[in-house]
UniProtKB/TrEMBL annotation:
Name recorded for this polypeptide: AB hydrolase-1 domain-containing protein
InterPro entries for this protein: AB_hydrolase_1, AB_hydrolase_fold
Organism: Anisodus acutangulus
Domain AB hydrolase-1: from-to ranges: 142-405
Pfam families from the UniProt entry: Abhydrolase_6
Single GO molecular function: hydrolase activity
């Protein structure tokens, strides 16, 4: 029988087997009933996957020695069959866990680049779109972060007439992995905030600028408040998605908000937080419902239904924008968003200090009381913990607050001028 020493360089401990007097070897004999020869590539792939944190560590491999290791003890035929079935199952399941590589814009065979981009210091590209008055004459300069599954073309950006009235220049950008911005596999709240800072510097927006984020784009604004506070003239969070695992959230409130989600979304969020290596498989498998927003089956409040119905005439255009958003692949856009947004944060937003103690700027938070996507109860708590945030709870308004033309104008004017309409 030929045996190959198990590669311990991947960080897999073999000491439990050695302590039991078992030789830590991987069988390669085709004559042995223990033979796993035809599955060896899969096993090795799993080992490598564990080394790169694609699979959970240790538990998969700390099994009985009859699974991957040879011992001198007798085994029943049933155990041998189970070994083969188990490894066969791994061989079948492993490819489904790994997302395909992104089709980076501008790369050979990848999607074409159709708009302006900047090249960041680390070599990645960030696509952007300018709105409003020329930045050279603008009174207000704003960087806008789009929502989940959207792009720099998001209609939540104020119409030209409003921006001209305000004297505002707005630059929206495709967050990493979306649209035509390069994917960033190591994306965090901090890296996105630094991307926004570099975008401002390369476009010449000056030492200070405003930031606004809608829905999932709110995470980018929280990142700016934490990591580049000295660059901000003001900030606006509009219906920002919350992370239910922020440590300062009271358990009862966090549970209340979490339980308001659809069961399939509760599971999707659990996976994003506790098992990010499963996010791709979870949101692409067909066995049971996955994230409702990704599937387009999320529950909408009556106000949101009304807003959406007014957009029905633009259905074909909206569909094209959705496809544009994920043209480099769903993993580095939608799925990465979930892993970053609902994963472990390096800071607690409710611990942030007032950026503008002398009133030289302001931070706003808008939320509709009929938002069924992001429960308003958690925003109320944030407003209590951070009284320096100007909290605007809008009655009879849902999550699509920035797609309501009247509300959108009110939000932009209040944010930039401080005057409530």
């Amino acid at each position: 029988m030929v045996a190959t020493t198990f590669p311990t360089k991947f960080g897999l401990s073999v000491s439990p087997f050695i302590q039991r007097g078992v030789q830590p070897t991987l069988l390669t004999s085709t004559k042995s009933l223990y033979s796993c020869n035809k599955f060896n590539p899969t096993v090795l792939s799993l080992i490598k996957a564990q080394a790169f944190n694609i699979l959970p560590t240790r538990p998969l491999y700390h099994l009985q020695d009859s699974i991957f290791f040879h011992s001198n003890s007798s085994q029943g035929m049933l155990g041998k069959v189970l070994v083969v079935l188990f490894v066969a199952g791994l061989a079948w399941a492993f490819p489904a866990l790994l997302p395909p590589p992104p089709r980076t814009c501008g790369s050979p065979g990848g999607p074409t680049v159709t708009g302006p981009r900047i090249k960041l210091r680390n070599g990645r590209h960030l696509a952007y779109k300018e709105h409003g008055v020329p930045k050279e004459t603008a009174k207000y300069k704003v960087i806008y972060a789009h929502s989940f599954g959207s792009t720099r073309y998001e209609s939540a950006v104020a119409p030209l007439e409003t921006l001209e009235e305000l004297g505002a220049y707005v630059v929206s950008f495709d967050r990493p992995g979306y649209g035509e911005s390069d994917p960033h596999p190591k994306r965090t709240l901090q890296t996105t905030a630094l991307d926004m800072e570099e975008l401002a510097d390369q476009l010449g927006l000056g030492p200070k600028f405003y930031v606004m984020g809608f829905s999932m784009g709110g995470h980018s604004v929280w990142g700016c408040l934490k990591y580049i506070p000295n660059r901000l003239a003001g900030a606006a969070l509009v219906a920002p998605v919350v992370n239910y695992w922020w440590p300062r959230f009271p358990a009862n409130l966090s549970t209340e908000g979490y339980n308001l989600q659809l069961p399939q979304d509760q599971w999707a969020l659990r996976v994003a937080h506790y098992a990010p290596w499963l996010v791709y498989w979870w949101n692409t498998q067909k066995w049971f419902p996955y994230n409702s927003v990704i599937s387009g089956q999320f529950k909408m409040s009556p106000p949101d239904i009304e807003v959406a119905s007014r957009s029905a005439k633009h259905a074909s255009e909206i569909q094209k924008l959705k496809e544009y958003a994920v043209k480099q692949g769903v993993f580095e856009s939608l799925h990465r968003d979930m892993m970053v947004g609902f994963g472990k944060w390096d800071f607690n937003p409710t611990d942030l200090k007032n950026l503008f103690p002398n009133g030289e700027g302001s931070v706003h938070l808008w939320h509709g009381d009929e938002d069924w996507v992001v429960p308003v109860v958690l925003q109320r708590y944030i407003a209590e913990r951070l009284p320096w945030i100007q909290y605007h709870e809008v009655p009879n308004v849902g999550h699509l607050v920035m797609h309501d033309p009247a509300m959108k104008e009110v939000i932009w004017k209040t944010f930039l001028t401080g005057k409530k309409e």
